[in-house]
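Here is the promised in-class demo. Please do not try to memorize the tokens; focus on the logic of going from shape to residues.
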């Protein structure tokens, strides 16, 4: 089972960026725990601060993997292009956020991506990623490119 974790802008600063909101651990420190927790899955991750690179990665992986865990960061609330890419690909996407978006500023409470995702997980810090990967593992897809409706 191949799962990509795709992180958007500013997530390269986890552990240093607003630790009261986003915690004190980097994603790179957390990732090996995910790999250990899910030996039945091949996990890869990619981070970019550039919208076009995130789009390119969705297009590249979106027809070959079993799932994508997407934390689009601030693009969640602004990117019609990312929302369209998630809608266009065959692979299911689970949207994740470290903080509880509903407890944040008004503009953060609207996700342009969510309606095109299999589900959304927010508010559990880095554990949000673990919950998303667990969902994919629980689905036990029979073939690449399954889509949850």
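The designed amino acids, position by position:
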């Amino acid at each position: 089972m191949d799962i990509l974790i795709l992180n958007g802008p500013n997530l390269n600063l986890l552990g240093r960026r607003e630790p009261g909101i986003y915690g004190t651990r980097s994603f790179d420190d957390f990732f090996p725990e995910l790999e250990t927790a899910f030996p039945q899955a091949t996990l890869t991750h990619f981070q970019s601060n550039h919208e076009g690179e995130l789009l390119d990665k969705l297009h590249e992986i979106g027809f070959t993997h079993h799932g994508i865990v997407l934390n689009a960061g601030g693009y969640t609330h602004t990117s019609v292009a990312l929302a369209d890419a998630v809608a266009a690909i065959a692979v299911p996407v689970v949207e994740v956020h470290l903080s509880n978006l509903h407890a944040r500023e008004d503009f953060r409470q609207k996700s342009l991506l969510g309606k095109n995702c299999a589900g959304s997980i927010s508010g559990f810090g880095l554990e949000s990623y673990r919950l998303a990967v667990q969902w994919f593992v629980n689905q036990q897809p029979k073939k690449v490119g399954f889509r949850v409706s």
